[in-house]
Amino acid sequence: METTTIDVRQGDFNVEDVETLRKDFNWEEMKATFSWYHTGKVNMAYEAIDRHAENPNKKDQIALLYSSPKREESLTFDQLRKRSNQFANVLKKYHVNKGDRVFLFMPRSPEFYASFFGILKVGAVAGPLFEAFMEQAVRDRLEDSQASMLITTPELLERVPVDELPDLEKIVLVGATGVDVSNYIDFDHEMEGASESFDIEWVDLEDGMVMHYTSGSTGKPKGVYHVHHAMIQHYATGKWVLDLTEDDVYWCTADPGWVTGTSYGIFAPWLNGVTNVIRGGRYSPESWYETLAKYDVTVWYTAPTALRKLMSAGKDIAKQYDLSKVRHILSVGEPLNPEVITWALDAYDRRIHDTWWMTETGAMLIVNLPCMEIRPGSMGKPIPGVEASIIDDDGNELPPYQMGNLAVKEGWPSMMRAIWKRPEKYNSYFINGWYVSGDSAYMDEDGYFWFQGRLDDVINTSGERVGPFEVESKLIEHHAVSEAGVIGKPDAERGEIIKAFITLNPGYEKDDALLEEIRQYVKTGLSAHAAPREIEITDTIPKTRSGKIMRRLLKSWELGLPTGDTSTLEE
Ligand code: PRX
């Protein structure tokens, strides 16, 4: 098979030769680079922040560089250590203990990061929620995780059904100036009185650290549970793949409500001691380029949807900004189009390095290291210490170029340790010692992996993973909707958009105002990214005899493809 390759050497890298690194690599040896290897006890907050704050040469380096339209603020490693200590003391005062789930539902801000590390410092499990979530999405997650505390803002509190969440005992309000806080814990007030020193709760490698809810084809979102052990891989991939060194200025565009925003927006950069740019506010090509230029960003981790938008905004805009400090660009979350890579070579004079991983995998697994030759359209190769393969449904490995399940040999450090309260769900990911991703792919003869699609009905819209079931459930709560089937429809900019097929209850007829109302209903009930961009009224929703919605058939209809096997279709 003919493949184009791009091999443009663009500097010196932490890893000069991946094959040498891969040879004889094992994670156990990597652990020995950390001091906790000898004590057995660990805490991510210490390794990411306090360790640097204790180093006289590093403590005054800017750790967090926050920029939003309304506010600009920076915190050194020392300041971030002190603020997170203060918040850890607040948590202790309110009896938050090791293993408790403490959720954060707020926009990115310095307070978010101080709170986040405060949570880890008391040994609790942090659960960041995307700020765009509406009531149903918030309720599902708080209910399932049985979070005992939530940190939020007065504006977002409206979307928290406090009275319906018996486990949620305490709510901390950030930025509550002028608000009646009598039923809540006032962040600013508590922080003022809190001590800047704190004795970290040392935990085991396998103790819980962070939880992210993500979607599958069926059921409510599931709580993907990660432990402190993951830090080895965050650190290693930060060094190898992001190519971070201590004087880098790094910007990951993802929100911490998604796994990229914690693993690579928090852990990997700070474990590697870099200055981390955190940007609040909305996307526009101008404001993004300004962020890169103004803060002299050197390493930039973003997503295909954003890159496609920047591409359609045109390279002339890019050329108006001084992006000369940007030395390394990476992408994650959805297929990275070869034409984006080609465009970036021209517009930014840089290659874009695709990386593949999932909420469940906790960290990057298949990547394009900066020293590697890039094959546009390929996700790259497994990182050292990781074995990936293409397997059939029985767990047998397939030869090059054969399409099958993209699978990874169990045993990498950042692997999820549980699906919260659902062991059967967790076990369903594995076959013959392989973690099965749900993606289909093939491998070429040189070991590069090529993504083909999802094998289940999970939708990937603008890099955000949406479960059709959640959207369908919300749709049928609307009084006009009888049944609903939801699919991802290919879209040039967003990868996929959400398309809903619905049947109407008696007495309702198709009209545009109604369809818009239904769309808004999902948007305000669940979240903006889960609202269908297209809604089509049909006479029936195809189902199997056992009542399962045949989304595959809906998709074939939509795309005008052959419908395949319909033997299980209901009469
Ligand atoms: O289908 C793959 C796609 O995103 C899914 C994982 O989504 P999520 O858990 O939200 O995590 C996203 C960020 C880590 C995968 O199963 N995906 C992720 N990276 C790529 C990708 N698809 C193609 N190319 C990628 N590089």
From TrEMBL:
Superkingdom of this protein's organism: Bacteria
Keywords: Acetylation, ATP-binding, Ligase, Nucleotide-binding
EC class name: ligase
InterPro entries assigned to the protein according to its UniProt record, in alphabetical order: AMP-bd_C, AMP-bd_C_sf, AMP-binding_CS, AMP-dep_synth/lig_dom, ANL_N_sf
Enzyme Commission (EC) number: 6.2.1.1
GO cellular component: cytosol
Residue ranges annotated for the AMP-binding enzyme C-terminal domain, each copy included: 470-548
Recorded GO MF terms: acetate-CoA ligase activity; ATP binding
Annotated AMP-dependent synthetase/ligase domain residues: 57-418
Pfam families, alphabetized: AMP-binding, AMP-binding_C
GO BP of this protein: acetyl-CoA biosynthetic process
Stored PANTHER family: ACETYL-COENZYME A SYNTHETASE, ACETYL-COENZYME A SYNTHETASE 1
Protein name as annotated: acetate--CoA ligase
